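Researcher: I'm comparing several assemblies side by side, and this is the next one on my list. It has 136 residues spread over four chains. Same procedure as the others: predict the full complex and return the structure.
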Amino acid sequence: MAASPSESETLLTPSEVAALFRVDPKTVTRWAKSGKLSSIRTLGGHRRYHEVEVRDLLNGIPVQGTVD
Amino acid sequence: MAASPSESETLLTPSEVAALFRVDPKTVTRWAKSGKLSSIRTLGGHRRYHEVEVRDLLNGIPVQGTVD
DNA sequence: ACATAGTAGGGTAATTAGGGTA
DNA sequence: AGTGTCCTAATTACCCTACTAT
């Protein structure tokens, strides 16, 4: 049985994603707001990103249907 | 086991690469478009270059199979 | 409750992409 | 063929203060 993909996923902080792309953390936030990158919100409002999605993006694999 | 080369690599901005080669950033872009230099893209379309590859090129070590 | 580091938010300057040209 | 420069539009970086994460 396949569990929901939303669970058991390693989450990355904005600064970690920023380091992988060599951009500013604010830029990653901008990507999330634009819907270019899906994001989870902590109860305090901070964003967390799926590692698998980020790594796919780094490898040039486009991801679809991701709205913040 | 060889992991994806896109991971765990320090990336350089176009201007940083340009400074290392003492050329205009536009020239670095042309190298990437020609496939002479591999590059990844930010979600906004800006290019980032692998530092190790740039270092090798600076040392006269040719790199193969790099298509923009 | 306190301290440190990271993040959200808004606003402004600096880079970059892309085409065309010298 | 290869590089530098000019242009506009888009993207990204840095400034700040307040709030969250640990």
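Model: For your comparison table: The interface with chain A takes residues 4, 6-7, 10-13, 40-44, 48 of chain B (CB under 8 Å).
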